[in-house]
Amino acid sequence: MKGPSCSVRQSLVRRLEASLSSPIQSNSHSGRTATRPSPSSILRNSKTATATTSQPLLRPRFFSQTSRASRPQPAEDPNFTSILDNPPQLVRTGGRRHGPGLIVLAIIPVTAFLLGSWQVQRLGWKTELIAKFEDRLVREPLPLPPRVDPDAIHDFDFRRVWARGRYRHDQEMLIGPRMRDGDDGYMVVTPLERDSEDGGRAGDRSAATVLVNRGWISKKHRHQASRDPASLPTGEVMVEGLLREPWKKNMFTPDNRPDKGEFYFPDVKQMAELTGSQAVWVEATMEPGLLEVMDMENRGIPIGRAAEVNLRNNHAQYIFTWYGLAVATSIMLYMVVKKPPTDISRRVRMNKEWS
To answer: Does the residue 41 lie in any domain?
Structure first.
Protein backbone atom coordinates (compact mmCIF):
# COMPACT_ATOMS: atom_id res chain seq x y z
CA MET A 1 0.00 0.00 0.00
CA LYS A 2 1.36 3.24 -1.12
CA GLY A 3 1.74 6.20 1.22
CA PRO A 4 0.79 9.81 0.59
CA SER A 5 4.36 10.84 -0.12
CA CYS A 6 4.44 8.44 -3.04
CA SER A 7 1.33 10.02 -4.64
CA VAL A 8 2.75 13.49 -4.29
CA ARG A 9 5.98 12.38 -5.88
CA GLN A 10 4.15 10.84 -8.82
CA SER A 11 2.16 14.00 -9.44
CA LEU A 12 5.32 16.08 -9.47
CA VAL A 13 6.91 13.69 -11.92
CA ARG A 14 3.94 13.93 -14.30
CA ARG A 15 3.99 17.75 -14.07
CA LEU A 16 7.71 17.91 -14.89
CA GLU A 17 7.32 15.55 -17.80
CA ALA A 18 4.52 17.70 -19.23
CA SER A 19 6.56 20.89 -18.91
CA LEU A 20 9.63 19.34 -20.50
CA SER A 21 7.80 17.66 -23.34
CA SER A 22 7.32 20.87 -25.40
CA PRO A 23 11.02 21.84 -25.78
CA ILE A 24 11.89 18.20 -26.45
CA GLN A 25 9.33 18.03 -29.24
CA SER A 26 10.53 21.31 -30.77
CA ASN A 27 14.09 20.09 -30.77
CA SER A 28 13.06 16.84 -32.39
CA HIS A 29 11.27 18.75 -35.19
CA SER A 30 14.33 20.92 -35.84
CA GLY A 31 16.52 17.89 -36.43
CA ARG A 32 18.42 18.05 -33.18
CA THR A 33 18.82 14.94 -31.05
CA ALA A 34 17.71 15.11 -27.45
CA THR A 35 17.97 12.52 -24.65
CA ARG A 36 15.10 11.72 -22.32
CA PRO A 37 15.94 12.65 -18.74
CA SER A 38 16.07 9.89 -16.21
CA PRO A 39 13.61 9.67 -13.31
CA SER A 40 16.38 10.21 -10.82
CA SER A 41 17.34 13.56 -12.41
CA ILE A 42 13.70 14.55 -12.41
CA LEU A 43 13.44 13.78 -8.74
CA ARG A 44 16.59 15.80 -8.00
CA ASN A 45 15.18 18.81 -9.76
CA SER A 46 11.71 18.47 -8.33
CA LYS A 47 12.47 20.63 -5.36
CA THR A 48 13.98 23.40 -7.44
CA ALA A 49 11.09 23.20 -9.92
CA THR A 50 8.54 23.79 -7.22
CA ALA A 51 10.48 26.80 -6.05
CA THR A 52 10.68 28.41 -9.50
CA THR A 53 7.12 27.78 -10.62
CA SER A 54 6.08 31.17 -9.27
CA GLN A 55 8.79 33.09 -11.28
CA PRO A 56 8.30 33.95 -15.04
CA LEU A 57 10.41 32.21 -17.58
CA LEU A 58 13.12 34.44 -19.16
CA ARG A 59 13.70 34.41 -22.91
CA PRO A 60 17.23 33.57 -24.03
CA ARG A 61 19.30 36.49 -25.43
CA PHE A 62 21.42 35.94 -28.49
CA PHE A 63 24.58 38.01 -29.05
CA SER A 64 26.65 38.49 -32.17
CA GLN A 65 29.80 36.55 -32.34
CA THR A 66 31.66 39.52 -33.89
CA SER A 67 32.87 42.09 -31.40
CA ARG A 68 32.76 45.84 -32.07
CA ALA A 69 36.45 46.17 -31.45
CA SER A 70 37.18 43.91 -34.40
CA ARG A 71 35.50 46.36 -36.87
CA PRO A 72 37.76 48.95 -38.63
CA GLN A 73 37.31 52.46 -37.19
CA PRO A 74 37.44 55.63 -39.45
CA ALA A 75 39.97 57.26 -37.12
CA GLU A 76 42.41 54.39 -37.73
CA ASP A 77 42.63 55.38 -41.43
CA PRO A 78 45.63 57.74 -41.89
CA ASN A 79 43.85 59.50 -44.84
CA PHE A 80 40.71 60.21 -42.84
CA THR A 81 39.72 63.90 -42.48
CA SER A 82 36.99 64.98 -40.14
CA ILE A 83 34.66 67.92 -40.62
CA LEU A 84 36.51 69.78 -37.89
CA ASP A 85 39.77 69.59 -39.84
CA ASN A 86 38.11 70.61 -43.12
CA PRO A 87 35.30 73.10 -42.30
CA PRO A 88 32.30 73.57 -44.61
CA GLN A 89 31.86 76.52 -47.02
CA LEU A 90 29.02 79.03 -46.89
CA VAL A 91 27.47 79.40 -50.33
CA ARG A 92 24.47 81.25 -51.77
CA THR A 93 21.75 79.09 -53.23
CA GLY A 94 18.48 79.71 -55.02
CA GLY A 95 19.46 80.01 -58.70
CA ARG A 96 21.38 82.81 -60.38
CA ARG A 97 22.89 85.40 -58.10
CA HIS A 98 22.07 88.42 -60.27
CA GLY A 99 19.62 88.79 -63.11
CA PRO A 100 18.54 91.47 -65.59
CA GLY A 101 17.61 93.77 -62.72
CA LEU A 102 21.29 94.24 -61.90
CA ILE A 103 21.99 95.35 -65.48
CA VAL A 104 19.18 97.92 -65.32
CA LEU A 105 20.42 99.11 -61.94
CA ALA A 106 23.91 99.55 -63.40
CA ILE A 107 22.59 101.56 -66.38
CA ILE A 108 20.61 104.03 -64.25
CA PRO A 109 23.56 105.78 -62.52
CA VAL A 110 25.48 106.06 -65.80
CA THR A 111 22.49 107.57 -67.58
CA ALA A 112 21.75 109.94 -64.71
CA PHE A 113 25.36 111.12 -64.64
CA LEU A 114 25.30 111.84 -68.39
CA LEU A 115 22.04 113.75 -68.10
CA GLY A 116 23.43 115.76 -65.19
CA SER A 117 26.52 116.65 -67.23
CA TRP A 118 24.29 117.68 -70.13
CA GLN A 119 22.29 119.94 -67.81
CA VAL A 120 25.53 121.59 -66.73
CA GLN A 121 26.12 122.57 -70.34
CA ARG A 122 22.51 123.72 -70.67
CA LEU A 123 22.88 125.86 -67.56
CA GLY A 124 25.91 127.62 -69.01
CA TRP A 125 24.12 128.19 -72.32
CA LYS A 126 20.92 129.51 -70.70
CA THR A 127 22.85 131.80 -68.35
CA GLU A 128 24.74 133.38 -71.25
CA LEU A 129 21.51 133.74 -73.24
CA ILE A 130 19.70 135.53 -70.42
CA ALA A 131 22.68 137.81 -69.86
CA LYS A 132 22.67 138.72 -73.55
CA PHE A 133 18.95 139.53 -73.53
CA GLU A 134 19.24 141.60 -70.36
CA ASP A 135 22.03 143.60 -71.97
CA ARG A 136 19.69 144.40 -74.84
CA LEU A 137 16.96 145.55 -72.47
CA VAL A 138 19.08 148.27 -70.89
CA ARG A 139 19.79 149.87 -74.24
CA GLU A 140 17.74 152.72 -75.64
CA PRO A 141 14.80 151.66 -77.85
CA LEU A 142 15.39 151.71 -81.60
CA PRO A 143 12.92 152.99 -84.19
CA LEU A 144 11.46 150.03 -86.04
CA PRO A 145 12.41 150.22 -89.72
CA PRO A 146 9.62 150.07 -92.30
CA ARG A 147 10.80 146.74 -93.64
CA VAL A 148 12.20 144.12 -91.30
CA ASP A 149 14.15 141.12 -92.51
CA PRO A 150 12.67 138.05 -90.76
CA ASP A 151 16.08 136.37 -90.71
CA ALA A 152 17.58 139.31 -88.78
CA ILE A 153 15.03 139.18 -85.95
CA HIS A 154 17.06 136.49 -84.20
CA ASP A 155 19.90 138.96 -83.62
CA PHE A 156 17.45 141.54 -82.19
CA ASP A 157 15.39 139.25 -79.97
CA PHE A 158 14.32 141.11 -76.78
CA ARG A 159 15.49 144.40 -78.32
CA ARG A 160 13.44 147.40 -77.32
CA VAL A 161 11.86 149.19 -80.32
CA TRP A 162 9.20 151.82 -80.95
CA ALA A 163 6.88 152.57 -83.87
CA ARG A 164 4.05 154.93 -84.81
CA GLY A 165 0.85 154.00 -86.58
CA ARG A 166 -2.85 153.27 -86.33
CA TYR A 167 -4.44 150.14 -84.92
CA ARG A 168 -6.64 148.07 -87.22
CA HIS A 169 -9.27 147.03 -84.68
CA ASP A 170 -11.33 145.45 -87.40
CA GLN A 171 -8.56 142.83 -87.80
CA GLU A 172 -8.12 142.18 -84.09
CA MET A 173 -7.30 138.58 -83.07
CA LEU A 174 -7.69 137.03 -79.63
CA ILE A 175 -5.26 134.29 -78.54
CA GLY A 176 -6.30 132.11 -75.69
CA PRO A 177 -7.26 131.08 -73.25
CA ARG A 178 -4.48 132.71 -71.22
CA MET A 179 -4.26 132.91 -67.42
CA ARG A 180 -3.15 135.95 -65.44
CA ASP A 181 -3.17 135.89 -61.64
CA GLY A 182 -5.68 133.03 -61.73
CA ASP A 183 -8.11 134.80 -64.09
CA ASP A 184 -9.00 133.50 -67.54
CA GLY A 185 -8.61 135.79 -70.52
CA TYR A 186 -7.02 136.43 -73.92
CA MET A 187 -4.06 138.16 -75.54
CA VAL A 188 -5.11 140.95 -77.88
CA VAL A 189 -3.17 141.05 -81.17
CA THR A 190 -3.85 144.01 -83.42
CA PRO A 191 -2.10 145.02 -86.70
CA LEU A 192 -0.36 148.40 -86.57
CA GLU A 193 -0.40 150.34 -89.85
CA ARG A 194 2.53 152.68 -90.04
CA ASP A 195 2.55 155.84 -92.11
CA SER A 196 5.22 157.26 -94.43
CA GLU A 197 6.93 159.17 -91.64
CA ASP A 198 8.40 155.88 -90.41
CA GLY A 199 9.91 155.20 -93.83
CA GLY A 200 7.01 153.61 -95.69
CA ARG A 201 5.92 154.71 -99.11
CA ALA A 202 2.91 157.02 -99.29
CA GLY A 203 -0.32 155.12 -100.01
CA ASP A 204 1.31 151.76 -99.17
CA ARG A 205 0.86 151.43 -95.43
CA SER A 206 0.24 147.67 -95.57
CA ALA A 207 3.86 147.11 -96.55
CA ALA A 208 5.00 148.52 -93.19
CA THR A 209 2.26 146.94 -91.03
CA VAL A 210 3.41 144.83 -88.08
CA LEU A 211 1.62 142.67 -85.51
CA VAL A 212 1.43 144.08 -81.98
CA ASN A 213 0.59 142.04 -78.91
CA ARG A 214 -1.17 144.73 -76.91
CA GLY A 215 -1.57 142.64 -73.74
CA TRP A 216 -4.09 140.66 -71.69
CA ILE A 217 -7.81 141.28 -71.22
CA SER A 218 -10.34 139.42 -69.12
CA LYS A 219 -12.63 136.84 -70.68
CA LYS A 220 -15.70 138.95 -69.96
CA HIS A 221 -14.32 141.67 -72.29
CA ARG A 222 -13.88 139.36 -75.25
CA HIS A 223 -16.22 141.42 -77.39
CA GLN A 224 -15.20 144.98 -78.21
CA ALA A 225 -18.64 146.33 -77.32
CA SER A 226 -18.09 145.38 -73.66
CA ARG A 227 -14.90 147.41 -73.37
CA ASP A 228 -14.26 151.01 -72.52
CA PRO A 229 -13.75 153.28 -75.57
CA ALA A 230 -10.26 154.08 -74.27
CA SER A 231 -9.27 150.48 -75.05
CA LEU A 232 -9.87 151.10 -78.77
CA PRO A 233 -7.81 154.17 -79.73
CA THR A 234 -8.66 155.45 -83.20
CA GLY A 235 -5.93 158.00 -83.82
CA GLU A 236 -2.21 157.66 -84.28
CA VAL A 237 -0.43 155.96 -81.39
CA MET A 238 3.16 155.29 -80.48
CA VAL A 239 3.92 151.76 -79.40
CA GLU A 240 6.99 150.78 -77.43
CA GLY A 241 7.76 147.16 -76.93
CA LEU A 242 10.08 144.20 -77.42
CA LEU A 243 10.91 142.73 -80.79
CA ARG A 244 10.47 138.99 -80.43
CA GLU A 245 11.08 135.92 -82.55
CA PRO A 246 8.03 133.99 -83.78
CA TRP A 247 6.70 131.54 -81.22
CA LYS A 248 6.99 127.80 -81.65
CA LYS A 249 3.98 125.56 -81.21
CA ASN A 250 4.31 122.59 -78.89
CA MET A 251 2.77 119.18 -79.45
CA PHE A 252 -0.02 119.71 -76.91
CA THR A 253 -1.42 122.92 -78.40
CA PRO A 254 -4.24 122.48 -80.94
CA ASP A 255 -4.12 124.09 -84.35
CA ASN A 256 -5.58 127.53 -84.91
CA ARG A 257 -8.94 127.85 -86.63
CA PRO A 258 -8.88 131.31 -88.20
CA ASP A 259 -12.16 130.70 -90.07
CA LYS A 260 -13.91 130.62 -86.67
CA GLY A 261 -11.71 133.31 -85.14
CA GLU A 262 -10.07 130.86 -82.71
CA PHE A 263 -6.34 131.22 -82.10
CA TYR A 264 -4.59 129.04 -79.51
CA PHE A 265 -1.01 130.19 -80.11
CA PRO A 266 0.56 133.11 -81.99
CA ASP A 267 1.38 131.69 -85.41
CA VAL A 268 3.04 134.88 -86.67
CA LYS A 269 3.28 133.81 -90.30
CA GLN A 270 -0.35 132.70 -90.42
CA MET A 271 -1.58 135.91 -88.81
CA ALA A 272 0.55 138.02 -91.14
CA GLU A 273 -1.03 136.35 -94.17
CA LEU A 274 -4.53 136.92 -92.79
CA THR A 275 -3.95 140.64 -92.14
CA GLY A 276 -1.58 141.40 -95.02
CA SER A 277 1.22 142.56 -92.70
CA GLN A 278 4.84 141.63 -92.15
CA ALA A 279 5.73 138.57 -90.09
CA VAL A 280 7.05 140.83 -87.32
CA TRP A 281 5.95 140.36 -83.70
CA VAL A 282 6.16 143.24 -81.20
CA GLU A 283 5.07 142.87 -77.57
CA ALA A 284 3.90 146.13 -76.03
CA THR A 285 5.48 146.92 -72.66
CA MET A 286 4.27 148.98 -69.74
CA GLU A 287 4.82 149.23 -66.00
CA PRO A 288 1.51 150.24 -64.43
CA GLY A 289 0.84 150.27 -60.70
CA LEU A 290 -1.43 147.88 -58.88
CA LEU A 291 -4.43 150.24 -58.79
CA GLU A 292 -3.95 151.14 -62.42
CA VAL A 293 -3.84 147.46 -63.39
CA MET A 294 -7.11 146.82 -61.57
CA ASP A 295 -8.75 149.76 -63.33
CA MET A 296 -7.51 148.61 -66.74
CA GLU A 297 -8.81 145.08 -66.12
CA ASN A 298 -12.28 146.36 -65.18
CA ARG A 299 -12.45 148.65 -68.24
CA GLY A 300 -11.18 146.03 -70.69
CA ILE A 301 -7.96 147.88 -71.57
CA PRO A 302 -5.17 145.45 -72.57
CA ILE A 303 -2.46 145.09 -69.93
CA GLY A 304 0.99 144.92 -71.52
CA ARG A 305 3.94 142.95 -70.24
CA ALA A 306 6.92 144.26 -68.27
CA ALA A 307 10.22 144.91 -70.04
CA GLU A 308 12.08 141.94 -68.57
CA VAL A 309 13.46 138.57 -69.60
CA ASN A 310 10.96 135.91 -68.61
CA LEU A 311 12.89 132.85 -69.72
CA ARG A 312 12.85 130.01 -67.22
CA ASN A 313 16.18 128.73 -65.97
CA ASN A 314 15.61 125.56 -63.92
CA HIS A 315 18.73 123.73 -65.05
CA ALA A 316 20.35 124.01 -61.60
CA GLN A 317 17.48 121.98 -60.15
CA TYR A 318 17.85 119.42 -62.93
CA ILE A 319 21.57 119.11 -62.19
CA PHE A 320 20.90 118.42 -58.53
CA THR A 321 18.19 115.90 -59.42
CA TRP A 322 20.24 113.90 -61.94
CA TYR A 323 23.46 113.88 -59.95
CA GLY A 324 21.56 112.95 -56.79
CA LEU A 325 19.91 110.08 -58.63
CA ALA A 326 23.30 108.93 -59.92
CA VAL A 327 24.78 108.89 -56.40
CA ALA A 328 21.76 107.14 -54.87
CA THR A 329 21.62 104.40 -57.51
CA SER A 330 25.39 103.89 -57.31
CA ILE A 331 25.07 103.23 -53.57
CA MET A 332 22.20 100.84 -54.22
CA LEU A 333 24.25 99.00 -56.83
CA TYR A 334 27.17 98.62 -54.42
CA MET A 335 24.90 97.29 -51.69
CA VAL A 336 23.33 94.76 -54.04
CA VAL A 337 26.67 93.47 -55.34
CA LYS A 338 28.41 93.36 -51.95
CA LYS A 339 25.43 92.24 -49.89
CA PRO A 340 26.24 89.11 -47.79
CA PRO A 341 23.85 86.15 -48.02
CA THR A 342 21.07 86.10 -45.47
CA ASP A 343 20.25 83.24 -43.12
CA ILE A 344 17.55 82.06 -45.49
CA SER A 345 19.66 82.11 -48.62
CA ARG A 346 22.84 80.74 -47.07
CA ARG A 347 23.40 77.04 -47.11
CA VAL A 348 26.28 74.76 -46.02
CA ARG A 349 27.91 72.89 -48.85
CA MET A 350 28.96 69.38 -47.89
CA ASN A 351 32.65 68.69 -48.17
CA LYS A 352 33.39 66.46 -51.14
CA GLU A 353 36.05 64.56 -49.15
CA TRP A 354 33.70 63.86 -46.28
CA SER A 355 32.69 60.23 -46.07
So the answer is: no
